[in-house]
Design brief:
Helix content is 38%, strand content 20%. The chain is of the alpha+beta class. A hairpin with a 2-residue loop joins strand 13 and strand 14. Helix 3 runs antiparallel to helix 4. Bound molecules: 5-amino-3-(furan-2-yl)-1H-1,2,4-triazole-1-carboxamide.
Length: 743
């Protein structure tokens, strides 16, 4: 094969080139000649990149920043383009050897078994007893188990011959699977070539095995899944319902270049067959074998451990269950394996699964149920949220009968109709979510004569009848009624009394409903005109201990307390007052920021968009919303009335002025993304922290600003979607300079 230099020579020889073109080609030649194109340098680069990759994926100990890895990778690509060096284990071989997947049927040499499932501790106890009986373990003794999280992806068998990955086959029916070698090679956690660890622990491999059939799970991390779906939404590509479907869809791509773009990873968990290299032997326990795999560069799950007896296994199940939501990958239970390989061999297999292992599963997190109706709720800022009413179902241990549908786009994306059978998912503390429609069920119902109805988004507010509008690119539909709308009025008053706002103890939903319903209160200012006598006779709905609703009168004692609590709210700190006004985009941290920049409400009301934008973390969306809020006649009238009635928030303490001078970014949260030219992430973080800011890893509504360097990805997109201020590296340098940071 010709090298790049040969190609350039032939272009120069065969064509009538202009002087400029000849000059450019000479320059390109010079650049390549300047590089070290020696075989040794090439091999060194491959080894270095593989070492970095191993440290990252297997040892969880990155040695260099991603940029440095990328730089070396590009150098390797350049050298390969200029030479005919193409080693089989070079990371550039992961995609691009031109092979498409054949998906040819491949018979597993040793069947790729699944596991028997159990769900209850009684079944675990029975499993433990079976192991004791079958393996003739004394009741005095406790059997040893290798306990592993049960990864929720796809099982795969990887065949290494003399340390080189030669085949990757899916489980299929357990006897025969599909050849997905080209796709598996694109997964960076799967080594193309096994290598020995420098460390020489007792269970670690001493030689590269002649043959290895290692089984494990290909899966997608939750981060990767979310980022992928965000990207897919932008391009109108198919969105996956969960990481498992995403992993399955990605591994079954015809073109490995497509698989290479998907954030897949891999953990090894079982050796199907192995012929160790000279001088080595296989460890005699499951745990030891996993360590042996790890020492060859195959990643294993870090939570794997050895436990004794039923109690040990039950402890592991609970320990993993407690961590489940905070892991960055989905698991659906735990796997308990008798640790001794000799005992495993004695017990053998049934037709479907090993006798020496069980999958002890968590309660299912996904269920099917029926969509009965969709209601539309109006929020404090007028946003209309569709809420699905469901036939009650137990998901992940909780009874679910309704679930938010977020917005009209979500309904469209899911293609929902009333009467549909839907899939509902609830992962731990996460809010339940409809992830899809079971279309076969719809077809069945329609064949039986049922008509499923379309969901129609209302054009008028269900609470006040005002027009419903959607502004610009906003996904939300809003009621335009403002405080004319009783729903918005009620919620605005509740918000005003909230703990983070003016903290009016005793002013909850039921009382606010009555006050608004009886027209005693229509704006927050009216709260200060309420008398003890008015409140004492107020009746409201109350839920007693048995859950029955009864009507109750507030009574004099509580009325007296409530009036006192309302009066006490007049002098709360200024930042809480700003938050209490319920300005869209102004959460507690923005309110604090405003209160440290504007001493009184009059100052704040007079602020221009430019003045607000001069505050480091206030972006254009928040600035415009604030100005619009105070320009609204109704809001000005309410604030004037509050002042008349004696509402006089405390300015923020003067100490904060001093604090502010030293730590001017106190109360602000920054997110760093992409790569900065002048600073490492650590340096930028330290600079921000020195000025009192917090630095977080993820963007949320609470983020004050995102500092975006080159090649910033999903965090930047999220910040833009949420209207959060984005600072370039130059803006960041200016911000530092403004606060006296010497760079
Ligand atoms: C999963 N899915 O995490 C096994 N598995 O071992 C673990 N599956 C398994 N082990 C033998 N951790 C057959 C299946």
């Amino acid at each position: 094969m010709s090298t790049l230099i040969d190609l350039i020579e032939s272009i120069s020889d065969d064509n009538d080139l202009t002087r400029e073109q000849v000059h450019d080609l000479e320059e390109i030649k010079k650049t390549y000649r300047a590089q070290d194109l020696s075989r040794e340098h090439y091999r060194e680069l491959v080894d270095t990149l593989n070492r970095y990759s191993r440290a990252y994926y297997i040892e969880d100990n990155p040695l260099v920043p991603d940029d440095e890895y990328d730089r070396l990778y590009r150098e390797l690509q350049d050298i390969e383009a200029a030479t005919d060096f193409k080693d089989a284990d070079a990371p550039t071989r992961r995609v691009g050897d031109g092979l498409l997947n054949t998906f040819a049927a491949v018979k597993h040499q040793v069947p790729l078994m699944s596991l028997d499932d159990i769900f209850h501790k009684e079944e675990l106890e029975a499993f433990n007893q079976r192991m004791h009986l079958a393996a003739k373990i004394d009741d005095e003794e406790e059997a040893e188990y290798c306990c592993e999280p049960k990864l929720d992806g796809l099982a795969i068998s990887l065949i290494y011959e003399q340390g080189i990955l030669v085949r990757a086959v899916t489980r299929g029916d357990g006897t025969t699977g599909e050849d997905v070698t080209a796709n598996a090679k694109t997964i960076k956690a799967i080594p193309l070539k096994l290598s020995l660890s420098a460390d020489k622990s007792s269970d670690w491999a001493k030689a590269i095995p002649d043959y290895l059939d290692v089984r494990g799970e290909v899966f997608m991390t939750r981060d990767g899944f979310e980022q992928w779906n965000e990207e897919a939404k932008k391009h109108n590509w198919r969105v996956f319902a969960n990481p498992r479907n995403a992993a399955a869809g990605s591994l079954r791509q015809q073109d490995p270049k497509v698989t290479a773009t998907r954030p897949l990873t891999f953990n090894a968990y079982y050796i199907g067959a192995a012929t160790p290299g000279a001088g080595d032997s296989l460890p005699d326990t499951q745990y030891g074998r996993l360590q042996w795999c790890k020492s060859l560069g195959l990643p294993i799950n870090p939570l794997v451990c050895v436990k004794r007896g039923f109690t040990g296994m039950q402890e592991f199940y609970q320990y993993i269950g407690a961590q489940r939501n905070s892991l960055n990958y989905d698991i659906d239970g735990t796997v308990m394996k008798l640790n001794s390989i000799a005992l495993q061999e004695e017990l053998g297999f049934t037709a479907k699964a090993p006798r020496w292992a069980v999958a002890y599963k968590f309660p299912p997190q996904e269920e099917m149920t029926e969509l009965l109706a969709v209601d539309f709720q109006v929020g404090r800022t007028g946003v209309i949220t569709p809420v699905a009413r469901l036939k009650p179902v137990c998901v992940g241990g909780a009874n679910i009968s309704n679930c938010t549908l977020h917005n009209a786009d979500e309904i469209k994306r899911l293609g929902l109709k009333i009467g549909d059978t839907i899939i509902i998912r609830r992962a731990g503390d996460v809010i339940p979510q409809i992830t899809g429609v079971v279309l076969e069920e719809r077809t069945k119902k329609e064949a039986q004569g049922a008509t499923l109805t379309e969901i129609v988004f209302p054009t008028t507010c269900p609470e006040c009848g005002s027009k419903v509008e959607r502004e610009g690119s906003d996904v939300a539909y809003r009621c335009t009624g403002g405080l004319v709308c009783p729903a918005q009025r009620r919620l605005a008053i509740e918000h005003y009394a909230e703990r983070n706002a003016l903290d009016i103890d005793g002013l909850g939903t039921a009382i606010v409903d009555e006050l608004v319903g009886h027209k005693l209160v229509s704006t927050v200012a009216d709260l200060y005109t309420l008398t003890e006598a008015q409140l004492a006779t107020l009746t409201f709905e109350h839920e007693d201990d048995s859950g029955k609703l009864t009507r109750r009168t507030l009574g004099e004692t509580i009325a007296k307390k409530l009036v006192a609590n309302i009066a006490a709210s007049k002098t709360r700190p200024f930042n809480r007052f700003i938050y209490a006004l319920g300005i869209r985009e102004v959460g507690t941290s923005t309110a604090k920021l405003l209160a440290t920049h504007f001493k009184t409400i009059d100052d704040l009301m007079a602020a221009t968009t430019e003045q607000l934008l001069a505050i480091p973390t206030i972006g254009p969306v928040a600035a415009t919303t604030i100005v619009d809020f105070f320009a609204e006649e109704h809001n000005r009238a309410v604030i004037a009335r509050l002042k008349e009635l004696g509402v006089a928030p405390e300015p923020l303490e003067q100490v904060s002025e001093m604090n502010l001078a030293q730590k001017p970014l106190i109360g602000q949260t920054y997110v760093l993304t992409g790569s900065l030219e002048r600073f490492t992430r650590e340096q930028a973080k330290e600079l921000l922290e020195q000025l009192g800011a917090k630095v977080s890893g993820s963007v949320s509504k609470k983020t004050s600003a995102v500092v975006a360097g080159a090649a910033a990805g999903s965090k930047l997109t999220k910040a833009q979607e949420l209207g959060i201020k984005v600072l370039s590296e130059e803006d960041f340098v200016n911000l530092m300079a403004e606060h006296g940071q010497q760079l």
